[in-house]
Design brief:
alpha+beta, 5-stranded antiparallel sheet
Protein backbone atom coordinates (compact mmCIF):
# COMPACT_ATOMS: atom_id res chain seq x y z
CA UNK A 1 0.00 0.00 0.00
CA UNK A 2 1.81 3.07 -1.25
CA UNK A 3 -0.45 5.71 0.33
CA UNK A 4 -0.81 6.33 4.05
CA UNK A 5 -4.12 4.95 5.34
CA UNK A 6 -4.87 8.12 7.32
CA UNK A 7 -4.40 10.23 4.21
CA UNK A 8 -6.83 8.05 2.25
CA UNK A 9 -9.52 8.15 4.93
CA UNK A 10 -9.32 11.91 5.38
CA UNK A 11 -10.34 12.34 1.73
CA UNK A 12 -13.68 10.62 2.41
CA UNK A 13 -16.95 12.38 3.26
CA UNK A 14 -17.16 12.62 7.05
CA UNK A 15 -20.97 12.61 6.95
CA UNK A 16 -21.09 9.27 5.15
CA UNK A 17 -18.73 7.80 7.75
CA UNK A 18 -20.49 9.11 10.87
CA UNK A 19 -24.01 8.26 9.67
CA UNK A 20 -22.96 4.60 9.71
CA UNK A 21 -22.93 4.83 13.52
CA UNK A 22 -25.54 7.45 14.47
CA UNK A 23 -28.63 9.10 12.98
CA UNK A 24 -27.87 12.43 11.31
CA UNK A 25 -30.62 15.01 11.15
CA UNK A 26 -31.31 18.13 9.10
CA UNK A 27 -28.67 19.94 7.08
CA UNK A 28 -27.94 23.66 7.46
CA UNK A 29 -25.48 24.78 4.81
CA UNK A 30 -22.33 22.70 5.20
CA UNK A 31 -23.34 21.56 8.69
CA UNK A 32 -25.37 18.59 9.85
CA UNK A 33 -26.95 18.05 13.26
CA UNK A 34 -27.12 14.94 15.43
CA UNK A 35 -27.50 13.95 19.06
CA UNK A 36 -24.04 13.63 20.60
CA UNK A 37 -23.21 9.96 21.35
CA UNK A 38 -20.53 10.91 23.91
CA UNK A 39 -22.81 12.37 26.57
CA UNK A 40 -26.55 12.13 27.42
CA UNK A 41 -27.60 14.60 24.73
CA UNK A 42 -31.35 15.31 24.57
CA UNK A 43 -31.67 18.04 21.95
CA UNK A 44 -30.33 18.85 18.52
CA UNK A 45 -27.96 21.75 18.15
CA UNK A 46 -25.01 20.71 20.31
CA UNK A 47 -23.40 18.18 17.99
CA UNK A 48 -22.35 19.54 14.59
CA UNK A 49 -20.73 17.87 11.58
CA UNK A 50 -19.09 20.10 8.97
CA UNK A 51 -18.87 18.27 5.65
CA UNK A 52 -16.69 20.92 4.02
CA UNK A 53 -14.06 20.99 6.78
CA UNK A 54 -14.34 17.27 7.51
CA UNK A 55 -14.73 17.69 11.26
CA UNK A 56 -17.31 17.19 14.02
CA UNK A 57 -17.75 19.10 17.27
CA UNK A 58 -20.03 18.91 20.31
CA UNK A 59 -20.48 22.34 21.84
CA UNK A 60 -21.80 20.81 25.06
CA UNK A 61 -19.19 18.21 26.13
CA UNK A 62 -16.36 19.60 23.99
CA UNK A 63 -15.44 16.47 22.03
CA UNK A 64 -14.36 17.05 18.44
CA UNK A 65 -12.08 15.95 15.63
CA UNK A 66 -12.08 14.24 12.25
CA UNK A 67 -13.90 11.08 11.12
CA UNK A 68 -11.11 8.84 12.38
CA UNK A 69 -11.32 10.42 15.83
CA UNK A 70 -15.10 9.91 15.86
CA UNK A 71 -14.85 6.17 15.14
CA UNK A 72 -11.96 5.83 17.60
CA UNK A 73 -13.98 7.40 20.41
CA UNK A 74 -17.27 5.75 19.47
CA UNK A 75 -15.82 2.23 19.41
CA UNK A 76 -13.07 2.69 22.04
CA UNK A 77 -10.32 1.69 19.63
CA UNK A 78 -7.07 3.33 18.53
CA UNK A 79 -6.97 5.78 15.65
CA UNK A 80 -5.09 3.22 13.56
CA UNK A 81 -7.81 0.62 14.12
CA UNK A 82 -10.47 3.22 13.34
CA UNK A 83 -8.78 4.31 10.11
CA UNK A 84 -8.37 0.67 9.07
CA UNK A 85 -12.03 -0.07 9.71
CA UNK A 86 -13.19 2.94 7.70
CA UNK A 87 -10.83 2.15 4.83
CA UNK A 88 -11.99 -1.47 4.75
CA UNK A 89 -15.73 -0.90 4.62
CA UNK A 90 -15.24 1.91 2.09
CA UNK A 91 -13.38 -0.50 -0.17
CA UNK A 92 -10.01 1.27 -0.01
CA UNK A 93 -8.21 -1.79 1.36
CA UNK A 94 -8.87 -5.54 1.23
CA UNK A 95 -9.65 -7.77 4.19
CA UNK A 96 -6.03 -8.95 4.06
CA UNK A 97 -4.69 -5.35 4.14
CA UNK A 98 -7.06 -4.66 7.04
CA UNK A 99 -5.67 -7.57 9.04
CA UNK A 100 -2.10 -6.48 8.33
CA UNK A 101 -2.81 -3.01 9.66
CA UNK A 102 -4.52 -4.38 12.77
CA UNK A 103 -1.61 -6.75 13.38
CA UNK A 104 0.81 -3.80 13.24
CA UNK A 105 2.66 -4.95 10.12
CA UNK A 106 2.31 -1.56 8.42
CA UNK A 107 2.86 0.77 11.35
CA UNK A 108 6.00 2.19 9.82
CA UNK A 109 3.73 4.25 7.57
CA UNK A 110 2.26 6.05 10.58
CA UNK A 111 4.45 8.47 12.49
CA UNK A 112 3.62 9.64 16.02
CA UNK A 113 2.44 13.23 16.01
CA UNK A 114 3.91 15.34 18.79
CA UNK A 115 3.15 18.85 17.66
CA UNK A 116 0.89 21.24 19.54
CA UNK A 117 -1.59 21.29 16.66
CA UNK A 118 -3.24 18.15 18.00
CA UNK A 119 -3.91 19.60 21.45
CA UNK A 120 -7.23 21.39 21.55
CA UNK A 121 -9.94 21.97 24.11
CA UNK A 122 -10.81 18.30 24.55
CA UNK A 123 -7.45 17.58 26.18
CA UNK A 124 -7.87 14.05 27.54
CA UNK A 125 -9.01 12.61 24.24
CA UNK A 126 -6.52 14.61 22.20
CA UNK A 127 -3.69 13.17 24.29
CA UNK A 128 -4.79 9.85 22.86
CA UNK A 129 -4.93 11.55 19.45
CA UNK A 130 -1.24 12.45 19.74
CA UNK A 131 0.22 9.52 21.63
CA UNK A 132 -2.29 6.79 20.78
CA UNK A 133 0.25 4.61 19.04
CA UNK A 134 2.99 4.72 21.73
CA UNK A 135 1.98 1.30 23.06
CA UNK A 136 0.84 -1.16 20.41
CA UNK A 137 -1.40 -4.08 21.23
CA UNK A 138 0.34 -7.42 21.67
CA UNK A 139 -0.07 -10.18 19.07
CA UNK A 140 -2.90 -12.72 19.39
CA UNK A 141 -0.38 -15.29 20.64
CA UNK A 142 0.89 -12.90 23.32
CA UNK A 143 -2.63 -11.90 24.35
CA UNK A 144 -3.65 -15.54 24.65
CA UNK A 145 -0.63 -16.32 26.84
CA UNK A 146 -1.14 -13.31 29.13
CA UNK A 147 -4.88 -13.81 29.58
CA UNK A 148 -4.49 -17.55 30.26
CA UNK A 149 -1.83 -16.86 32.90
CA UNK A 150 -4.12 -14.29 34.49
CA UNK A 151 -7.29 -16.41 34.35
CA UNK A 152 -5.60 -19.54 35.70
CA UNK A 153 -5.06 -17.73 39.00
CA UNK A 154 -8.71 -16.67 39.34
CA UNK A 155 -11.80 -18.43 40.70
CA UNK A 156 -15.52 -18.38 39.95
CA UNK A 157 -17.64 -17.58 43.00
CA UNK A 158 -20.86 -19.42 43.79
CA UNK A 159 -23.13 -16.52 42.84
CA UNK A 160 -21.63 -16.28 39.36
CA UNK A 161 -21.58 -20.06 38.95
CA UNK A 162 -25.30 -20.23 39.75
CA UNK A 163 -26.04 -17.48 37.22
CA UNK A 164 -24.19 -19.31 34.44
CA UNK A 165 -25.72 -22.71 35.29
CA UNK A 166 -29.27 -21.79 36.32
CA UNK A 167 -30.00 -18.71 34.23
CA UNK A 168 -27.81 -19.29 31.16
CA UNK A 169 -28.02 -23.10 31.20
CA UNK A 170 -24.29 -23.51 30.60
CA UNK A 171 -22.90 -26.91 31.74
CA UNK A 172 -20.13 -26.96 34.36
CA UNK A 173 -17.61 -28.54 31.94
CA UNK A 174 -18.19 -25.72 29.43
CA UNK A 175 -17.86 -23.09 32.17
CA UNK A 176 -14.49 -24.54 33.09
CA UNK A 177 -13.36 -24.96 29.48
CA UNK A 178 -14.25 -21.39 28.51
CA UNK A 179 -12.60 -20.12 31.73
CA UNK A 180 -15.44 -17.96 33.02
CA UNK A 181 -14.13 -16.33 36.21
CA UNK A 182 -15.07 -13.82 38.90
CA UNK A 183 -13.19 -10.53 38.70
CA UNK A 184 -10.86 -10.32 41.74
CA UNK A 185 -10.99 -7.64 44.43
CA UNK A 186 -8.27 -5.02 44.75
CA UNK A 187 -6.56 -6.95 47.57
CA UNK A 188 -6.76 -10.22 45.64
CA UNK A 189 -5.28 -8.56 42.55
CA UNK A 190 -2.09 -7.57 44.37
CA UNK A 191 -1.44 -11.14 45.52
CA UNK A 192 -2.22 -12.41 42.00
CA UNK A 193 0.45 -10.17 40.47
CA UNK A 194 2.93 -11.36 43.10
CA UNK A 195 2.12 -15.00 42.38
CA UNK A 196 2.46 -14.52 38.62
CA UNK A 197 5.82 -12.83 39.17
CA UNK A 198 7.06 -15.74 41.28
CA UNK A 199 5.93 -18.34 38.75
CA UNK A 200 6.63 -16.59 35.43
CA UNK A 201 9.21 -13.91 36.13
CA UNK A 202 9.29 -10.44 34.55
CA UNK A 203 5.75 -9.02 34.32
CA UNK A 204 6.78 -6.67 31.49
CA UNK A 205 7.19 -9.66 29.18
CA UNK A 206 3.67 -10.83 30.03
CA UNK A 207 1.44 -7.75 30.33
CA UNK A 208 2.99 -5.05 28.18
CA UNK A 209 0.69 -4.39 25.22
CA UNK A 210 -2.17 -6.36 26.78
CA UNK A 211 -5.49 -4.47 27.15
CA UNK A 212 -6.71 -4.10 30.72
CA UNK A 213 -3.22 -3.89 32.23
CA UNK A 214 -1.05 -0.82 32.75
CA UNK A 215 1.80 0.47 34.88
CA UNK A 216 1.09 2.93 37.67
CA UNK A 217 3.54 5.10 39.55
CA UNK A 218 3.29 4.37 43.29
CA UNK A 219 5.77 6.03 45.69
CA UNK A 220 8.10 6.78 42.74
CA UNK A 221 8.01 3.13 41.72
CA UNK A 222 6.28 1.76 38.61
CA UNK A 223 4.02 -1.23 39.34
CA UNK A 224 1.69 -3.30 37.15
CA UNK A 225 -2.03 -2.80 37.73
CA UNK A 226 -5.31 -3.97 36.21
CA UNK A 227 -8.31 -1.71 35.66
CA UNK A 228 -11.01 -1.96 38.33
CA UNK A 229 -14.06 -4.11 37.57
CA UNK A 230 -16.72 -6.21 39.28
CA UNK A 231 -18.52 -9.12 37.68
CA UNK A 232 -18.10 -12.21 35.52
CA UNK A 233 -15.08 -12.33 33.21
CA UNK A 234 -15.96 -13.57 29.71
CA UNK A 235 -12.86 -14.59 27.69
CA UNK A 236 -13.36 -13.54 24.04
CA UNK A 237 -11.82 -15.99 21.56
CA UNK A 238 -10.92 -15.75 17.89
CA UNK A 239 -11.51 -18.51 15.34
CA UNK A 240 -8.24 -20.16 16.37
CA UNK A 241 -9.49 -20.48 19.94
CA UNK A 242 -7.08 -17.88 21.29
CA UNK A 243 -8.23 -15.53 24.04
CA UNK A 244 -7.77 -12.07 22.53
CA UNK A 245 -9.84 -9.94 24.92
CA UNK A 246 -11.81 -10.03 28.15
CA UNK A 247 -15.32 -8.74 28.61
CA UNK A 248 -16.96 -8.17 31.99
CA UNK A 249 -20.63 -8.77 32.75
CA UNK A 250 -20.94 -6.28 35.56
CA UNK A 251 -22.84 -7.24 38.70
CA UNK A 252 -24.68 -3.93 38.87
CA UNK A 253 -26.05 -2.33 35.73
CA UNK A 254 -24.88 1.24 35.29
CA UNK A 255 -27.23 4.22 35.05
CA UNK A 256 -26.54 4.26 31.31
CA UNK A 257 -27.98 0.75 31.02
CA UNK A 258 -24.58 -0.73 30.15
CA UNK A 259 -24.26 -4.30 31.43
CA UNK A 260 -21.04 -5.31 29.69
CA UNK A 261 -17.62 -3.61 29.95
CA UNK A 262 -14.44 -4.26 28.04
CA UNK A 263 -11.30 -5.05 30.02
CA UNK A 264 -9.47 -2.10 28.52
CA UNK A 265 -6.75 0.22 29.79
CA UNK A 266 -7.01 2.85 27.06
CA UNK A 267 -7.52 5.58 29.69
CA UNK A 268 -4.02 4.82 31.00
CA UNK A 269 -2.13 5.13 27.71
CA UNK A 270 0.11 7.98 28.81
CA UNK A 271 -0.26 10.21 31.88
CA UNK A 272 2.05 11.48 34.61
CA UNK A 273 1.26 8.46 36.76
CA UNK A 274 0.34 5.77 34.25
CA UNK A 275 1.91 4.08 31.23
CA UNK A 276 1.38 1.27 28.74
CA UNK A 277 -2.42 1.25 28.68
CA UNK A 278 -3.95 -0.33 25.57
CA UNK A 279 -7.45 -0.28 24.07
CA UNK A 280 -9.27 -3.60 23.86
CA UNK A 281 -11.14 -2.67 20.72
CA UNK A 282 -14.35 -4.63 20.05
CA UNK A 283 -13.20 -8.00 18.69
CA UNK A 284 -15.42 -10.75 17.31
CA UNK A 285 -16.02 -13.85 19.42
CA UNK A 286 -16.08 -17.37 17.93
CA UNK A 287 -17.61 -20.37 19.72
CA UNK A 288 -17.48 -24.00 18.54
CA UNK A 289 -19.85 -26.83 19.63
CA UNK A 290 -18.35 -29.68 21.62
CA UNK A 291 -19.11 -32.19 18.85
CA UNK A 292 -18.76 -32.04 15.06
CA UNK A 293 -20.82 -29.00 14.01
CA UNK A 294 -23.47 -28.87 11.30
CA UNK A 295 -22.92 -26.80 8.15
CA UNK A 296 -24.77 -23.70 9.35
CA UNK A 297 -22.87 -20.71 10.71
CA UNK A 298 -24.78 -18.42 13.05
CA UNK A 299 -23.97 -14.75 13.57
CA UNK A 300 -25.48 -13.16 16.66
CA UNK A 301 -24.80 -10.52 19.30
CA UNK A 302 -23.16 -11.50 22.59
CA UNK A 303 -21.45 -14.55 24.09
CA UNK A 304 -24.41 -16.04 25.93
CA UNK A 305 -26.47 -16.22 22.75
CA UNK A 306 -23.53 -18.02 21.14
CA UNK A 307 -23.39 -20.51 23.99
CA UNK A 308 -27.07 -21.38 23.54
CA UNK A 309 -26.67 -21.80 19.77
CA UNK A 310 -23.54 -23.95 19.99
CA UNK A 311 -24.97 -26.14 22.76
CA UNK A 312 -28.56 -26.64 21.59
CA UNK A 313 -28.37 -26.25 17.81
CA UNK A 314 -24.87 -27.57 17.24
CA UNK A 315 -23.67 -24.70 15.05
CA UNK A 316 -20.51 -22.62 15.08
CA UNK A 317 -21.39 -19.11 16.15
CA UNK A 318 -19.67 -15.75 15.67
CA UNK A 319 -20.91 -13.03 17.98
CA UNK A 320 -20.42 -9.33 17.49
CA UNK A 321 -20.23 -7.10 20.53
CA UNK A 322 -22.59 -4.41 19.25
CA UNK A 323 -24.27 -4.69 15.86
CA UNK A 324 -21.94 -2.23 14.14
CA UNK A 325 -18.78 -4.04 15.27
CA UNK A 326 -18.53 -6.70 12.57
CA UNK A 327 -15.41 -5.53 10.71
CA UNK A 328 -13.11 -8.46 9.96
CA UNK A 329 -15.87 -11.07 10.15
CA UNK A 330 -14.96 -12.47 6.72
CA UNK A 331 -11.50 -13.38 7.97
CA UNK A 332 -12.93 -15.21 11.00
CA UNK A 333 -15.21 -17.21 8.70
CA UNK A 334 -12.23 -18.26 6.56
CA UNK A 335 -10.21 -19.28 9.61
CA UNK A 336 -13.13 -21.15 11.22
CA UNK A 337 -13.75 -23.17 8.06
CA UNK A 338 -10.06 -24.06 7.71
CA UNK A 339 -9.92 -25.12 11.36
CA UNK A 340 -12.97 -27.39 11.03
CA UNK A 341 -11.75 -28.96 7.79
CA UNK A 342 -8.49 -29.88 9.50
CA UNK A 343 -10.20 -31.18 12.63
CA UNK A 344 -13.09 -33.16 11.08
CA UNK A 345 -12.49 -35.45 8.14
CA UNK A 346 -14.79 -34.67 5.22
CA UNK A 347 -16.12 -31.42 6.67
CA UNK A 348 -17.17 -29.27 3.70
CA UNK A 349 -17.49 -25.87 5.34
CA UNK A 350 -20.51 -23.64 5.90
CA UNK A 351 -23.27 -23.88 3.30
CA UNK A 352 -25.63 -21.42 5.03
CA UNK A 353 -25.22 -18.41 7.28
CA UNK A 354 -28.04 -17.43 9.66
CA UNK A 355 -28.01 -13.91 11.11
CA UNK A 356 -29.83 -13.92 14.45
CA UNK A 357 -29.94 -10.48 16.01
CA UNK A 358 -32.54 -9.38 18.58
CA UNK A 359 -36.01 -8.81 17.16
CA UNK A 360 -35.95 -5.08 17.89
CA UNK A 361 -33.40 -4.62 15.09
CA UNK A 362 -36.27 -4.50 12.61
CA UNK A 363 -37.64 -1.42 14.38
CA UNK A 364 -34.34 0.49 14.42
CA UNK A 365 -33.27 1.91 11.06
CA UNK A 366 -29.63 2.49 12.06
CA UNK A 367 -29.21 -1.06 13.34
CA UNK A 368 -30.98 -2.50 10.32
CA UNK A 369 -28.64 -0.61 7.98
CA UNK A 370 -25.70 -2.20 9.81
CA UNK A 371 -27.26 -5.64 9.37
CA UNK A 372 -27.70 -5.02 5.64
CA UNK A 373 -24.16 -3.75 5.24
CA UNK A 374 -22.69 -6.72 7.08
CA UNK A 375 -24.81 -9.20 5.14
CA UNK A 376 -23.88 -7.68 1.78
CA UNK A 377 -20.19 -7.66 2.67
CA UNK A 378 -20.25 -11.34 3.66
CA UNK A 379 -22.19 -12.28 0.53
CA UNK A 380 -19.67 -10.45 -1.64
CA UNK A 381 -16.83 -12.42 -0.06
CA UNK A 382 -18.73 -15.75 -0.10
CA UNK A 383 -21.04 -15.67 -3.15
CA UNK A 384 -21.89 -19.40 -2.99
CA UNK A 385 -23.14 -19.36 0.60
CA UNK A 386 -26.83 -18.80 1.32
CA UNK A 387 -27.39 -16.00 3.82
CA UNK A 388 -30.64 -15.60 5.74
CA UNK A 389 -31.89 -13.40 8.52
CA UNK A 390 -34.03 -15.32 11.00
CA UNK A 391 -37.09 -14.13 12.86
CA UNK A 392 -39.14 -15.64 15.68
CA UNK A 393 -42.03 -14.77 17.97
CA UNK A 394 -41.67 -11.22 19.25
CA UNK A 395 -42.28 -12.32 22.85
CA UNK A 396 -38.70 -13.64 22.79
CA UNK A 397 -36.26 -10.75 22.46
CA UNK A 398 -33.10 -12.73 21.65
CA UNK A 399 -32.46 -16.14 20.17
CA UNK A 400 -31.14 -17.30 23.54
CA UNK A 401 -34.56 -16.53 25.08
CA UNK A 402 -36.18 -18.53 22.29
CA UNK A 403 -33.84 -21.51 22.71
CA UNK A 404 -33.87 -21.66 26.52
CA UNK A 405 -37.67 -21.43 26.66
CA UNK A 406 -38.27 -24.12 24.03
CA UNK A 407 -36.69 -27.38 25.14
CA UNK A 408 -36.30 -29.49 22.00
CA UNK A 409 -35.06 -33.07 21.85
CA UNK A 410 -32.99 -32.63 18.67
CA UNK A 411 -30.92 -29.68 17.41
CA UNK A 412 -32.69 -29.73 14.02
CA UNK A 413 -36.02 -29.13 15.76
CA UNK A 414 -34.97 -25.60 16.66
CA UNK A 415 -35.25 -24.68 12.99
CA UNK A 416 -39.02 -25.04 13.27
CA UNK A 417 -39.15 -22.23 15.81
CA UNK A 418 -37.93 -19.45 13.56
CA UNK A 419 -38.58 -18.19 10.06
CA UNK A 420 -35.90 -17.80 7.43
CA UNK A 421 -36.05 -14.48 5.63
CA UNK A 422 -34.00 -13.87 2.48
CA UNK A 423 -31.50 -11.14 3.30
CA UNK A 424 -32.68 -9.02 0.40
Amino acid sequence: MSRDIFEMVRELDIVEIIERYIDIENKQGDEYNALCPFHPDKRLGNFKINSKKGIFKCFSCGVGGDAIEFVSLYKNISRLEAASEIAYYKGLISIFDYNEYINNNKLTQHKIRKGKSGVKKYKNRNLKYILGEIEFKASDEELDRAYNIFLDDLKLNEKHREYLVDIRDIPINIIEKRKYKTYPTHNEMKSIFNKIYREHGDLNSIFRGVPGFFKQKVNNKWEWRAVYNEGIIIPIRNARGQIIALQIRVDREKNSGVRYNWFSSSQHIYTNNARYGVSSGVPLDVIYPEKRPNNILFITEGRFKSEAIASKIGSVCISVQGIGNWTGIEREIYVAEDYLKQRYKGYMGFTRIYIAFDMDIYENLQKYKQLEEMSDSIQSEFPTKEIYCIQWESKFKGIDDLILNNKQSRPEDYGKLFKLVDKK
